[in-house]
Automatic annotation (TrEMBL):
Region (Disordered): 475-494
SUPFAM superfamilies cross-referenced by the UniProt entry: TPR-like
Pfam families: DUF5107, TPR_16
Protein name: DUF5107 domain-containing protein
Superkingdom: Bacteria
Gene3D superfamilies in the record: Tetratricopeptide repeat domain
């Protein structure tokens, strides 16, 4: 029997009163939409919203925080620790895309995520539509929301997931529309564009991505598109049929797929399956009772997705496997523990799973590299499928499900109208069934054999011109051995060779391991072979990143001494490149020119070295020489938007204005949101203070002091944002330029004003380091410059220098609560001076008595200093209103009350407020609840819903071993870890 019917509507029906109302297309676009065109427009949408809290005024030095299996460091991003318990209707900026088949809505203020993806043919939200903005404390920087599609880079979850992006709507000659979103990530200041594209008459959603390393150093990164999908009891995730095993984070565990055959996340699936056949199938949401991830280990397929058998609809992701091997499913688990997290993230929209697609990555954490100036370009595609069943093969044109219980039944769905499409079933290459039909998105076309035939089956969907739209072939028996789980590397002393020591250190660095440092491995490598080239260069780059220029230079020269002893022209010139960077930072400009020139002899480093050399020449006023270098790069090395800006500056100095304008026009046509090009063109300039500061330094490096000064002064006048306060650094940068221009009085005014507002002023990057270092050298009595420079040094691991700078700033009379808190932290961690640490925290509390974080950290310090519980309780009881403003502080207080004071008051607090647990930090509120019931003599009971968490049914892998050491493969450990003795 053949059916050609649209899929039924979704099972999920959210609260109609709270459903997001999508506006109709404006009248000037409605006609184009009616004709089958694709349209896009900007129009605010009101969404019920729980606001995130104000970011902390204190820098967070989470050196050993484990987050998604990699480093959870957040500096210089201000950290958010609170979310509101009350919702309000709030208008959000929104960009809408629509054609005849799908409707999308993007939220630029939340990282440019796709918030709505609706299949107009079936009424199915193929991306989970969360009808409320309800952040939970899941994100790297604090708040995170579920639903839609989140684009995660350069690590997971995206540092800018709660930061705004700039957008631009682009309409192409082929009728497609693209909404470009530009992200300037807050850590290394790299640049990313993701464009969401719809084409006329196609149900495919395309993400066009450009990742650009605009820095001078190689940077690690990953890219995961995180798609949320509604789930119910009959939801199934599907992978290509050649997937027989899946892996946990970092491949710490492996299991068979789709039926798990061993313990996974503490659940013995083999035993479950033996008791209840089918309950071992981890492709089914309702079989997974605990928070669980699994990722494809190896597959030759380009697609995967999810299908809701009850709703009769699903979603497919497709991307070329050569760049996009990552295919992952994540769930909170279908059990009370997971349902508690669902309630943290939505009011009425229920559970979801994440179907995550990784590009240049296949696991988490799994980082690749971007060379200096490199741009990586790729696309990802999604589309809804109607009542097809899980896809067994898929392309951007079509998907197919094949039923093989006897005669073959093939069900096809297409992404655009196909007249006279040919459906074919073959046996050993011979046609056993054929059908011709007109096809359209949202409608399934089926074909089946009259009877089961002999031979290996395959099915095809062909267009009217005979081209194949999708093909499925029965998989041969797979004899591949089971993949091995990863293991922890041996200690440096037990590592056999220098090469292994180098590579282990490289792995720890590249993958941003949160609790293991590469330094012991590299130090041991140099102990065995002081001249090892690779290790010296790895350490040189590390020292350069933290501003230890002289040390970096010495290491690079050691590498070069061996590298060039017999071969003056090495196959890899990274050593010359790093030497050139360190020399330039030390103002050894002639030597820097020579090193960068030689670095350009190697194709790997030609683009990066050529740009750095041209910029240096321009900075020195040698404009024609700079232009010649840029011209040698044209057509030889990859696209680098930085070159257009530098070329424009040089051409303008040479009076070639028309040519400069043409360069900018071409640059903006290719990268319409590139910040430097827009500034130079004076067109739709960025307003973000951090971006303007970066562009200012870029102009300064090219010798455009006047242009840089204008930007620095603009930043000085700009308000601080959720990304931080850039005014103090901009003020010192402006002062340094004014000194160069001989305007010393104005320079002094900027230095005096730099300390007016230090809230959330967290300096970052080598340019800021150089400016602040120069300010301290110019005026050793400037406490603000020392305070700021100390923060940057502490972040870089230069802790002794940071402690000295903070101590000097305090001695100079700067009684700032953040400074005093920072100094107290350093006194405990670095100096090991418990008395000094306590005195500094006492002074910090006195400087800002209402700062709950300072008081909470002081209590954490009291625990480490051995203060007895009664003393701690007395201290906290005296400031209970402040204590109760923080969940973590409240739990400490309640635990003290239950064990050493008033258990009834503890019970009253626990039942009278809402708690918001950190992902991975669950259990603390439940432990306080249990302790309180014991103290009251009450029987054990399940925690109330307001605690925000439920008891897990299974024990997850412990992040901390019995010996107190964090497990090498720990994926989450949200503890403070600020107090960590070095």
């Amino acid at each position: 029997m053949r059916t050609d019917a649209p899929a039924p509507g979704p099972e999920h029906t959210p609260d109609e009163a709270r459903t997001i109302r999508l506006p109709d297309a404006p009248s000037d676009l409605a006609e184009a939409l009616a004709r089958g065109g694709a349209v896009a427009w900007e129009e605010p949408v009101t969404i019920r919203t729980y606001e995130s809290g104000e970011p902390s005024v204190h820098p967070m030095y989470f050196d050993h925080r484990v987050y998604q299996g990699s480093s959870g460091r957040v500096y210089p991003l201000p950290f958010v620790e609170h979310v509101s318990d009350e919702a309000r209707d709030r208008p959000w900026q929104a960009v809408h895309l629509e054609n005849a088949h799908v409707r999308l809505m993007l939220l630029p203020e939340l990282g440019g995520r796709i918030h709505v993806g609706l299949d107009k043919a079936t009424g199915y939200d193929f991306f989970y539509r969360n009808n409320v903005i309800k952040p939970a404390l899941v994100g790297l920087g604090g708040p995170w929301i579920s639903g839609g599609v989140e684009f995660n880079w350069p690590q997971h979850h995206r540092p800018g997931t709660y930061l705004p992006v700039e957008t631009r709507i682009e309409r192409d000659d082929d009728g497609s529309v693209t909404v470009w979103c530009h992200d300037h990530e807050p850590f290394e200041r790299m640049s990313a564009h993701h464009g969401i594209r719809l084409r006329p008459e196609s149900s495919v959603v395309e993400a066009v991505v450009r990742l650009h390393n605009r820095t001078s150093l190689r940077q690690s990164f990953l890219w995961w598109a995180n798609v949320a999908a509604y789930v119910g009891d009959d939801y199934q995730s599907f992978f290509p049929e050649d997937v027989h095993h899946v892996a946990d984070h970092a491949r710490r565990a492996i299991t068979a797929f789709p039926a798990a055959d061993r313990e996974y996340y503490g659940v013995d699936y083999a035993a479950r399956g033996a008791r209840d056949p089918g309950s071992d199938r981890i492709d089914r949401y309702h079989n997974i009772p605990v928070p669980t991830s699994y990722m494809v280990v190896d597959s030759q397929g380009d697609f995967f997705g999810g299908y809701d058998h009850t709703a009769g609809a699903g979603v497919v992701h497709w991307a070329e496997r050569r760049v996009s091997p990552g295919k992952k499913m994540w769930t909170w688990g279908d059990a009370p523990f997971g349902h508690a997290w669902d309630a943290q993230l939505t009011d009425s929209d229920g559970p979801y799973v994440e179907l995550m697609a990784g590009v240049h990555t296949d696991n988490q954490p799994d980082f690749s590299w971007l060379l200096p100036g490199e741009t990586k370009v790729f696309s990802q595609f999604w589309y809804p499928i109607p009542n097809l069943g899980p896809a067994h093969a898929a392309t951007p044109d079509a998907a197919v499900n094949v039923r093989r219980d006897g005669a073959v039944v093939a069900s096809f769905a297409v992404t655009s109208h196909r007249r006279n499409a040919e459906l074919v079933i073959l046996r050993d290459g011979r046609i056993s069934a054929r059908r011709v039909v007109d096809m359209a998105p949202g409608v399934v076309a089926r074909i089946e054999e009259e009877a089961a035939g002999d031979g290996s089956p395959s099915v095809e969907l062909r267009s009217a011109d005979g081209s194949t739209l999708v093909r499925w072939t029965a998989q041969a028996d797979d004899e591949r051995p089971e993949p091995e789980a990863a293991d922890e590397p041996p200690s440096p002393a037990d590592t056999a060779t220098v090469e292994e020591l180098y590579l282990t250190g490289l792995h720890l660095s590249q993958y941003r391991h949160p609790t293991r440092s590469p330094l012991p491995y590299w130090t041991e490598a140099l102990r065995r072979d002081p001249g090892d080239v690779r290790t010296n260069l790895a350490l040189a780059e590390r020292e350069l990143r933290v501003g230890n220029y002289a040390a970096a230079e010495a290491l690079a020269r050691t590498a070069l001494a061996r590298l060039t002893r017999r071969n003056a022209n090495p196959t890899d010139t990274e050593a010359f490149y790093l030497l050139g960077l360190t020399l330039r930072r030390q103002q050894k400009l002639d030597e820097a020119e020579q090193a960068l020139g030689k670095a350009g002899w190697d194709g790997t480093w030609a683009a990066a070295a050529g740009f750095e050399l041209a910029q240096l020449l321009a900075h020195r006023g040698r404009n024609r020489a700079a232009l010649r270098v840029l011209e040698t790069l044209d057509g030889v090395v990859g696209h680098d938007p930085r070159r257009a800006g530098l070329r424009t500056i040089v051409l303008r100095r040479l009076g070639r204005l028309a040519e400069a304008d043409r360069v900018l026009e071409r640059a903006l046509a290719e990268d319409p949101l590139d910040a430097t090009s827009r500034v130079l063109a004076g067109r739709s300039r960025p307003t973000d203070a951090g971006v303007l500061l970066d562009v200012g330094f870029e102009l300064l490096h090219a010798g455009d002091a006047t242009g840089a000064l204008a930007l620095f002064e603009e930043v000085v006048a700009a308000p601080s944002t959720a990304e931080g306060n850039f005014r103090p650094v901009a003020g010192y940068a402006a002062a340094s330029v004014l000194d160069l221009l001989g305007r010393s009085r104005e320079a002094e005014q900027h230095r005096e004003h730099a300390g007016r507002d230090l809230r959330r002023a967290f300096p970052n990057g080598l340019d800021a380091l150089d400016v602040l270092t120069a300010a301290v050298e110019r005026d050793p009595a400037d406490p603000v410059a020392k305070h700021l420079l100390g923060m940057l040094h502490y972040h870089h691991g230069r802790r002794t220098e940071a402690m000295a700078l903070w101590g000097s700033a305090i001695d100079l009379g700067l009684e700032h609560p953040v400074l005093l808190r920072n100094a107290g932290l350093a006194a405990y961690n670095v100096a090991g001076d418990d008395d000094l640490a306590w005195r500094l925290y006492e002074r910090a509390v006195a400087a800002d008595p209402d700062d709950a974080r300072i008081r909470y950290e002081q209590d954490q310090l009291a625990i480490r200093l051995g203060h007895d519980p009664a003393t701690r309780l007395e201290r906290l009881a005296g400031s209970e209103p402040i204590v109760l403003t923080r969940d973590d502080f409240t739990i400490e207080y309640v635990t003290l009350l239950a064990g050493h004071g008033d258990a009834r008051r503890a019970h009253e607090i626990l039942t009278g407020r809402r708690f918001h647990p950190w992902e991975g930090g669950e259990g603390k509120a439940v432990a306080a609840w249990d302790e309180t019931l014991r103290s009251l003599g009450l029987a054990p009971a399940d925690p109330p819903a307001n605690l925000g968490e439920a008891r897990p049914r299974y024990t997850a892998p412990a992040p901390v071993r019995d010996d107190g050491v964090t497990d090498y493969f720990a994926t989450s450990l949200p503890d403070l870890l600020l107090f960590s003795r070095e």
